[in-house]
Task: structure prediction
Amino acid sequence: MFGRLGAPEIILILIVVVLLFGAKKLPDMARSLGKSARILKSEAKAMKSEGQQPAPADPPPAQRTIQSAPGDVSSARPVTEPTDTTQR
Result:
């Protein structure tokens, strides 16, 4: 019943989306969705690389800079990492 989406259904969904949000806002929404996807991907990659490397006994607190897009310095911000003293 709901499992088959053909071309007419997809076109109808796209028309409804354009009518709801307006054609002017769609590029901005797509751009922000792309930035969010890049941030999520870079954070997941950083978490994966942190899990593979052995952690030193007392790592010094460091600041990382998270950028939303390569070369986009206007939205970059320094982030302090939380200190976790518990052993897992």
